[in-house]
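User: Fold this one for me? It's Cyclic di-GMP-binding protein.
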Amino acid sequence: MGSADHHVPSSSHRGRGRAFVKACVLAMTMPGLLLAPLGSRAAPPAAAGTAVTLASPAAIPGATPGALAAAGTTADGTAPALTTLATPVAATAPAPAADPNRTLTTADAGEVLPNGGRRYVLSFRQLGILYPPELRGTDGTVGVPFAVRSDEIVTGARLHLVYSYSPALITNLSHLKVMVNGVVAATVPLPKEQAGMPVTRDIPIEPRMVTDFNQLSIQLIGHYTMQCEDPAHSSLWANLSNASSLELTVASLPQANDLSALPLPFFDRRDIRRLQLPFVFGATPGNATLEAAGIVSSWFGSLAGYRGAVFPAQLNALPATGNAVVFATSDERPAGLTLPVIQGPTIAIATQPNDPKARLLLVLGRDANELKTAATALALGRISLNGQSVTVTALKGVEPRKPYDAPNWVPSDRAVRFGELNALSGLGVSGYNPDLIRLNLRLPPDLFAWRTNGVPLHLIYRFTPRPSADKSTLNISVNDNFVASLRIPTYAAGGVSLDALTGSVAADGTVSRAVDLAIPSYLLPSQSQMQFHYYYDYVKNGACKDVPLDNVRGAIDPNSTLDLSSFPHYIAMPDLAAFGNGGFPFTRMADLSETAVVLPDSPSASDYGTYLAALGMMGASTGYPALGVTLARAADVKTVADKDLLLIGAPSNLSLLQGWADSMPFSASASTDTFNVSDFAFGLLDWWHGTDRTVLGPRHAHLSLSGGGMGDAVVMGFESPLKNGRSVVALIGSTPQNHAELLDVLMDADLVKQLQGGLAIVHARTVSSIASGDVYYVGALPPLEYLHWVLSAHPLLLALAALVLAVVIAALLYRMLRRIAARRLKK
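Assistant: Here's what I get for Cyclic di-GMP-binding protein.
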């Protein structure tokens, strides 16, 4: 955030200071650990049900040999040997079991301990291990990454491991090796009597080994015979459950009121939990104040990314605990909060009065315009932030955005290099059983790929040539769907020896090749992942000769390209999938300059929270703050008629829902819910529309349900009644619980896939989508392509056009022949 002409502490100095503070806190919270003799040290108190990683002491920045020795590490920087676990270790004060599927937020405090610390549990699934890992061979390994917040220090850690293993493994030779950051934390024996059944074991991990970013590795050392064995034998396996968990006991570290640390402590990229950050307003925030808050929430949403972010609105009150962001002007300010004198657009940080461990981020201005200036400067990082308060004197050079230029989106006007989309370190693998090379993509949802061969992919890949013909391949998939398989050739592929390929042989012995492919467009939704799997065939050499060597490599060249430039932007609407996956059509402009959010005339705190979370979701999609968003109340909706509208509220306080009932697929009153429904059966009567159009056919029936009124959340899309070609997406909920359930769906990668068509009903974690609403189109096609598109969907029109054309041609030929005949008669 700082500029070159302002002093900002270097990362090394900050790391040393934080390491020293962590060591002090660790000494205070674990005196028994530091004072016990090294050989007789007891495991630190920890609860069953979770795991933590160990970090090498040598990796702690700024630690001297003497300090390391005092912490239980030898003077040469090596760690003492850790004990092998022969029996399950009894845990003290077990923490609540982790729900492996529940989404955790930063508001989850876990179990609060008497000493002021807390203990929480993270399942492997919550740490990103979506499928149960399977370890195969003599040294199969799985890695589980995790991190620790910068304002916390781990004082206790425990791995709760759930696993099973092959009955064929020899107990004396086989075991599981648990490592943290490459250091052995424990070895787990595999006794014969527990083979083939689920086993649960608690493994304590010394907290002094945990750093900021950590890798927990579990390796199978497996053997099935005392004689010569096949390293790839089918009996060498162990399965881990992704319900296994990591339990962390943490203590808080003191934080300074310093803006140079932003976005810390309000957002910490080490924290994988969903961000929950309250926004505090006065009693009745105005539209401009809410627009400023939307800028900041979209900025935090872009930082949170895959985690998701919610921003509960607090009116005239601070939250009881935790960090918060306060928006105030000279006329609009929360009651009971003492603020500094406002002398212009100001960004400041202060201690939370209700929670001395927490902080307040103050976004201030004398009026609403200055408040938006402060929010914009914060989101763009155009000023150097240092100290407790900064006043923005000028803000210039904010360029207007162009359609589809969101920083997070793959450019659609040119071919894009893989090196622009992924770090180079993530494009290479090694070994016979490597992990996938993954390339995450965000594509514009409205790419029109009708009757094309697919998306052009120019792939340059490197590989270790095989000494003889085998089944080695590079397998290419998109979102786990197979696309292509490329053979890895031998030394003399195509009759050319390796010596003749010196121009393409790298220093590591790999050879590069290029191939042009086409990825089917239906495999590329707006959020996609390309996956490259190098499979090197294991050649059997015979008994006692099968020794696997780590001498194979594979890499995707960063100069490989994906080209979307040949696809126009044109999409059938309403399409809630496009909204749920990419915030479309609002995110078409990265700054949301063509978007207006419409709130009720008397909105509730949950309406404000839904608005802020929705803008955070769009910021995560675009990677850019919503500098151009407009906020309006329902009574003034005609003033934003030329924009796409995001409608938020409840049927009881949003009068637009009654006035626009004829345009919407859903309407509700106090006792009746009415749905406009379409069904594929009606498509049989509309066969002339063509198979490409019946999925989102126009509505054909009205369904009314009488009862206690709407009890579920509703997401619907329809064409704006105010202007053709503009879209409306409505997020409707009668209660705060409805709003919370709706946001959970929008931020859950599994649930958001169920948003389809023009109408979706959300009940708890259940989503019911209905193909409903009149179809309209957004975007434009080249004239000739549009003509092909229209005629392909209307065969009767095509036949009529052919008939008219035949009549016209016949008439022209008739006149031409009559003239020829007349000339001949004259002669």
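One thing worth pointing out: The first helix runs from residue 11 to 29.
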